């Protein structure tokens, strides 16, 4: 019972232990996003192919083991995981997600404290929203996407699984970004266009029409790479 005049206590769940998969350059961005929300996450360590004192010091985290140990932890410990490998190796990112999911891993959705996400937006498991990024109303960001520093995902945009929206990139309202795409630094995607599966939109490009699956689109306005110089 609560004494007269006292407010009832509110139970706040403890932070969840979170493990980074990978310890390269991008891992620092992930670690700092995690650490910006100590109310939600307890950074527990990182997984990589080998121990690295430099990575441990840079991230402020301990090395927990390689991927074999990571999958063992996923099966036995109450942890959450998040990819900390950048978009440069899409095959590796996909492979890791599949292997860890098969081991029973549960993935975190991490939003930097300095990001803005609309309450009507949907973020799937494994998504990282970086510092200064904005995800507006009705947007749907699928599993394991990276919405990087200062990126803007406008209203009603869909970003497909394992896609990367680079720092400062802007996606106009209603656009559809299919799975495993990479939107380069500072690019612009016109509203209501579609970017096909696995396409790459180059740094600073301005896409004003649909991008075919697997294409590399460059320039202003963006054209497929083989068309450059025509």
Protein model, in words:
By secondary structure, the chain is α/β, with parallel strands linked by helices. It has 2 domains: 16-102, Rossmann fold (3-Layer(aba) Sandwich); 110-221, UDP N-Acetylglucosamine Acyltransferase, domain 1 (3 Solenoid), CATH 2.160.10.10. Helix content is 18%, strand content 26%. The protein is built from 4 helices and 23 strands. The protein has an 8-stranded mixed sheet, with helices on one face. Strand 1, helix 1 (25-35) and strand 2 (41-47) form a beta-alpha-beta unit. The longest helix is centred in the middle third of the chain and has 13 residues, at 90-102.
Which helices and strands, and how do they pair?
Blueprint: E1 16-21, H1 25-35, E2 41-47, H2 53-59, E3 63-65, H3 67-76, E4 80-83, H4 90-102, E5 110-111, E6 116-117, E7 122-123, E8 128-129, E9 134-135, E10 140-141, E11 146-147, E12 152-153, E13 158-159, E14 164-165, E15 170-171, E16 176-177, E17 182-183, E18 188-189, E19 194-195, E20 200-201, E21 206-207, E22 216-218, E23 223-224
